[in-house]
Write a structure and sequence with these properties.
By secondary structure, this protein is of the alpha/beta class. The chain folds into 3 domains: 40 residues; 217 residues, P-loop containing nucleotide triphosphate hydrolases (Rossmann fold, 3-Layer(aba) Sandwich), CATH 3.40.50.300; 172 residues, Ribosomal Protein S5, domain 2, CATH 3.30.230.10. 23% of the residues lie in helices and 25% in strands. It has 10 helices and 21 strands. The strands form 4 sheets. It has a 9-stranded mixed sheet. It has an 8-stranded mixed sheet with strand order 14-15-13-12-16-19-21-20. Strands 1-2 form a two-stranded antiparallel sheet. It is elongated, with a radius of gyration of 28 Å. It binds thymidine-5'-diphosphate and magnesium ion (MG). Magnesium ion binds next to helix 3. The site of magnesium ion has 4 residues, from helix 3. This is RecA family profile 1 domain-containing protein.
């Protein structure tokens, strides 16, 4: 055909910088800019990416999500709307996943499940797929389709078998081509679509390989249009990439309706599912699971996952104290471990507590409570890789250090809540009653809190637990050791 003007396109990210550069100004790849000539009557599928991709997707999906016009307030129906109805998810892990989603899966929503490779995203979504497939009050009768761009259907099938998932209403498909996926599932009119992962799928017409920013964004947008137009919910897996956020779930957060992140330490079997964005509900939710041989299971006592095994032994060790912290809507009891070694070179080794925070607590213990830590090496650790960010944990850190230094164990069933000021005074922290109640429910017999917080509690006895208010560190030391 007749040619118009020459231009440049990056074969990695699809960027069109308008002139030649040695490295792409958008994605910094070297030598990926290729010339292309846009002609009016022929479209080059390899390079003229955007146009082709859009025309293919547009061929059976409307470009605009909703066709609407301004309407008078009084004409707008209120009360129950389409987002109030959710697909309930229960069974395999109780209602844990429903809760994180804000009460269930909203039809037509696009949900992104992000996390490090290997954390358990595929496992979770296979289980969610099985749960969705079994919901029988669902209006849509079709199957759930689980599409993987990473594994063959045999591999997924084997995994499902090991996890004792055996529903016929779950279809597996292996493909990386978004248009192919959408075309193939169309005749099934599925009740839900799962795509694992967004980094492995691509749009045919777009330049660049699967996983680059442009592909990841456009594929997500295409799936969003699909979800909105068909009212079929779509769940996407997104790997958090090594380099941080490039082409990872971060760039997609504003496109999708809800974002859940899965977290877990390598050496712990616990997995946290955190809602960081939810267009249809609260983000103050946290799900707690445990990875087992047969997939993820809900944890029955999630408050206690950051306590070490010693809490069930009879032996009592020195240098251990329990803090009470809040995360999302949950309360966690977190074990702090301290080790003071006298007569050594004064090493500080801190894990899970900010170094500046540890320094401050140690300084206050020396100056305001008379604990002679001067010639000690001090090691601090928070169990299971938990990062202590709340000031509410200060008092437990101080108590753990004192216990190790004095070589007196803290009796079992004692928890600490409180912030430490520079004068050694104990200060109030938010949601005292919620924390104290959580500790009492777990059968603890004593909870040490700042004296100033007593008023906010109303009572000093909770289910057989005594609450003890202390003005400062000295008082705490006197009453515990
Ligand atoms: P996977 O879901 O594949 O992680 P992701 O999709 O986030 O990359 O799970 C990874 C790990 O979980 C893998 O090392 C094996 C383990 N696992 C179990 O312990 N139990 C199970 O039932 C399954 C399916 C996996
Ligand atoms: Mg996976």
């Amino acid at each position: 055909g007749k040619t118009a003007k020459a231009s440049w396109v990056c074969t990695n990210c699809g960027g069109t910088p308008g002139q030649w550069w040695g490295s792409c100004p958008y994605c910094q790849s070297m030598g990926t800019l290729k010339p292309f000539v846009a002609s009016e009557d022929s479209v080059d599928g390899q390079t003229n990416g955007m146009k082709v991709a859009e025309s293919v997707v547009r061929s059976w999906l409307p470009e605009k999500l909703v066709v609407s016009e301004p309407r008078s307030l009084t004409e707008v129906s209120y009360g129950m709307n389409q987002h109030d109805w959710r697909i309930p998810l229960s069974g395999l892990f109780g209602t844990e996943i429903s809760r994180v989603l804000g009460g269930g899966l909203v039809p037509g929503s696009l949900v992104l499940v992000g996390g490090d490779p290997g954390v358990g995203k595929s496992t979770l979504l296979l289980q969610v797929a099985a749960m969705l497939a079994e919901v029988d009050i669902y209006v849509q009768r079709g199957p759930v389709v689980y599409v993987s761009g990473e594994e063959s259907i045999e591999q997924i099938g084997n995994r499902a078998h090991r996890m004792r998932i055996g529903t016929s209403n779950l279809y597996l498909y292996s493909s990386t081509d978004v248009e192919d996926i959408l075309e193939k599932i169309h005749p099934l009119s599925p009740r839900a679509l799962i795509v694992d992962s967004i980094q492995t799928v691509y749009l045919r017409g777009l330049a660049g390989s699967a996983g680059n920013v442009q592909q990841v964004k456009e594929c997500t947008s295409a799936l969003l249009r699909f979800a909105k137009q068909t009212n079929i919910p779509v769940l996407l897996v997104g790997h958090v990439t090594k380099s941080g956020d490039i082409a990872g779930p971060r760039v997609l957060e504003h496109i999708v309706d809800a974002v859940l992140y899965m977290e877990g330490e390598r050496y712990s079997s616990h997995r946290l599912l955190r809602s960081v964005k939810n267009r249809f509900g609260s983000t103050d939710e946290l799900g707690v699971f445990e990875m087992s041989q047969i997939g993820l299971q809900a944890v029955s006592n999630p408050s206690e996952i950051f306590l070490s095994e010693h809490h069930s032994d009879s032996e009592i060790l020195t240098g251990l104290a329990v803090a009470v912290v809040l995360d999302g809507s949950r309360t966690f009891l977190v074990e702090i471990q301290a080790l003071c070694v006298s007569g050594s070179t004064g090493i500080r080794n801190v894990n899970g507590v900010k170094e500046s925070k540890a320094d401050l607590i140690i300084a206050v213990l020396m100056k305001q409570a008379g604990i002679k830590l001067q010639d000690n090496s001090i090691f601090l650790n928070v169990v299971s890789g938990f990062q202590l960010t709340e000031t509410a944990g200060d008092l437990a850190v101080a108590a753990a250090i004192c216990s190790s230094f004095l070589e007196i164990p803290i009796p079992k069933g004692v928890a600490f809540i409180g912030e430490i000021g520079l004068g050694g005074e104990l200060r109030m922290v938010p949601q005292m009653d919620k924390r104290v109640n959580a500790v009492a429910k777990l059968g603890y017999n004593k909870c040490i809190i700042p004296k100033v917080a007593e008023k906010s509690l109303g009572a000093l006895h909770f289910d057989g637990m005594t609450v003890l208010g202390c003005r400062n560190l000295k008082e705490m030391i006197r009453s515990v050791f």
